[in-house]
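Chain and backbone:
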Amino acid sequence: MSDASPQSPDDSAANRSWWPEFLVLGQRRVRGQMRVLGLSIIVGIVAGLAATVFYVATEAASHFALDGLAGYRPEPAPAGEIKFSWMQPTDTTFRPWLLVLIPTVGGLLAGLIIYTFAPEAEGHGTDSAIAAYHRKQGYMRPIVPIVKIIASALTIGSGGSGGREGPIAQIGAGFGSSLADMLKLRPAERRILLAAGMGAGIGAIFRAPVAGALFAAEVLYSSPEFEPEVILPAALSSVIAYSTFGAIFGWTPLFDTPELAFGSPVQLVGYTLLALAMVPLAMLYTRTFYGITGLFKRMPGPPHIRPAIGACLTGLLGVGLYFSFGEQAVLGVLSFGYAAVQQVLTEPESMSISLLAALALGKLLTTSLTIGSGGSGGVFGPSMVIGACAGGAIGLALREYWPALGADPASYAVVGMAGFFAAAAKTPFSTMIMVSEMTGGYLLLLPALWVCTVSFMLSDRRSIYSQQVESRTRSPAHQASFVRQILAGQTISKLISTGEMRVLKPRDSLAEVFHRFDDATIAVMPVVDDNRRLVGVIDLEEVYLASQAPSLLPLVLAADLMHADVSPVLANESLENVYATFVESGYQALPVVDNLEDRRVQGMIRRGEVASAYLRLLYGRPLSAGSGSSTDS
């Protein structure tokens, strides 16, 4: 006989209900974010189109200013660089002296636009978006993305050293913020859309959608911490932005990389040496960048001309390297510098260790001068040049002096890009993925993970993104949530006075309202019907405004002044929920009712009492009966 017994009706019903229950749980999981997730798709479309406009603007400025006027044509061009039919290389003879004049003019124009219309568009952009997330409730002025596109195209297109990530991050973040503001969304939702726009822009411009989503959640903090509520919206917006950008420009990774792979555990010794070299180089980068930024901040005179001074010094440094090392040196230190990265990936033997070292240090200085002076451009792109050149130099040195490690200069260039920026920006995971997507070097994920982890752990606390905070507990954007955690589990029952409370009736005259408020020490008074059921509240501010029109005094009743849409609280309600109700309502006191059906008023609770309760709980002092201030009798 079979041991199997017939399925009971209960079991059958449970099996039949399993799938619908799964759907219900899934629906509940995303319901809270459904609006933000839907809007993230719109943010992704706009960020992809903005990345398209920004890409064309920078390429056009570079073509006409550098190629057309100075004969500056960086070669070899990255594989993913789009060739426009109307931007064919000119036959202009290379004139190095114009590489000083053209960046200066570009910096002057960018400075005039930035400091006239949107001073927050200066610098590398990502910091501004991070600051808006933590300290401005996700708000950015709508004019900032427009100014950022123009100023960045002028700065980078004229030869200033910068990348596309900072500008497009600020452009995408600005649209996310503006969309949330236009739809009157809550600050928390506005912050999420700002971060989603930041990730979408980066995912599109670098053809790195996975890294764009991770970067938006990771770059907000200097510790290995992610912003969890950002990841899903940023993932949707990043995929949509990448798809929009790719549909126009194609799907080729930014750099053409030979087939590279990790082949032996012994190679980790060389990669460890690479990580150890990236840490002091990243420290030098951040200190040089903010040291030069501080010098320009203290410079006398109007800020409008500072980007021109920084760009002029950038051009002088580039020309100096040209006369010292030849044309190859200029290809890395001005504008994007991606030609140097492409060359070290495909032809590392054509470059000497000294040249690669000069390119890394030169790019470090020109980026600090261009962006630190107030010019508009990103710091991620230059970091790729610095990391690739330094990594390539270390790979060449190890191959020559320690061949047993089997060091491949191209592999060290790819991993060096990831390790350097992980130490400089405190974003080890998103940087590792971004470099892999930009180069197609997915077989180097293991050494990249190793180098990013080691370089991040050994790096100091200084980040190239100065507006990062250490963790969620230090973020002003999350202070309210930590207050609610402390208040959770405590009810307001001990904070309600049991004495007689002053109330108003809807037909009370304005004179009676004046009289009741005259002796009261509370700024909000409930309005009740004959059965003591709540019908609304009157705020002292409304009474003051009514008193400014003496002719209306005989006509105004309490019903005319009251707000009927008030949300009362329950005596057994948690302090956490009451705190949230105070934040949403804006009132300084709220009525306490026995239940939400009869709404019979039992007392009032003040906002200050909740704040006092929070402080007592924060320092471990339990609440006791009568610990709140009593209501008026």
